[in-house]
Amino acid sequence: IKNIGLINTSWGGTPAEAWTTLETLKSDPDYAPILQRDTNPDDIRAKLEAKFGKLVTAETDRGKLFGDTRMVTEGWAGAEVDAAKWETMELPKAWEQAGLEIDGLVWFRKQIDLPQDWAGKDLTLELTPIDDYDIAYFNGQKIGQMGLDTNNSWQTPRVYSIPGSLVKAGQNIIAVRVFDTGGGGGITPTNDPMRIRPKDASAEQARDLKGPWQYRIEAISAIASSGEQNNPARLYNAMIDPIVKAPIKGAIWYQGESNAGRAYQYRKLFADMIRDWRRAWKVGDFSFYFVQLANFMDQQPQPGDSAWAELREAQTMTLSLKNTGMAVIIDVGDAKDIHPRDKQTVGYRLAQIALARDYGRKIEYSGPMYKSMKVEGSAIRLSFDHIGGGLMAKDGDLVGFSIAGSDKKFVWAKARIDGDSVVVSSEQVAQPAAVRYAWADNPQCNLYNKEGLPASPFRTDDWPGVTAENK
What we know:
This protein is an alpha+beta fold.
């Protein structure tokens, strides 16, 4: 009997660059933005105070967030502000993605011009999820808030009512005071709407609020320094380098959420991290098996872009490295919990890979993986690897497929299994160009092989995604 041991070296909510060597990060110009992020608290404060003026320390008692703030009396929520002290940020976006590496209180403002026939009418303000808490204002008056009284407020879209008595024709001001307690913060990007409209009006009559907003920091919280572990190479140096003299057979890896906003960059970064570890152990290309991101957040009624889908795609691309394997858990997640509770299924699927790849078991260890497509008139035929005993739809007809023509406008599609392939079509797309499957944060999807393993999400196109420019 061989002695077998597991070393658990982990830190939740951290990005892949923290587990990668500084030498690798310095060797590639694409990683320069990572190296330029300075999370030293004293440096952060000095740089921000040079821009915004003296900053106070935010109250660490979260319950006091909704207390009086002098910024309201000083007009931050109203029409008259000193524009020189405000910066601009494209929203929706986690503010870390805009270079704001802090936790604390930040105000966002947007001036909008409303037509005469909106004056005096009750309006509805819709915003994407805000991480973590917020108070919303319209023309200087508070219209709503979300905080400690709401579970998972950081992933909940906001819907606030604006009384008609505050609404006037011409210039109006929307202001949102956001409190981030840790990790990512801000008015975050999802498929949810970000708009304003008359209360009973249709979505077509709404004014889109995405785009440039003014922002200004109110305070940096006392926990702003807790992001030290996210610095480049910090966790590699502290938690990988000290154990590289231990014998190793393989590694299992569950991460990616913290890099979802930079999924295109992750295509290269994750592979480079794996190469780093293999160089450090000096025993060749040991097995490296990882878990694809689970389904998470609210389901969307229509096909759309998704940073999480792009991160799953980046993980799938990493399978091009020798001796890698991926456990797909697109059916195990929880819309309201980033940590799926079903750990047994995750462990089982990882074990199947190891049993087949490392211990010689003659078993199917992966669900269907997209291989190729062929246009057949008004339909697209999809072929797969790892079909095992055959393809199957779990619990009814196939769902989760969308299709688009060259206009890149995806619509839900009909899909059917035809032998070892899937045929996809829609009456709305006469000349199809691309198919996507399970392409969402939390998709409805049910393509499996008969071994009970789910198909990996995929797309047949390579059209630029929402994270393509994020570094």
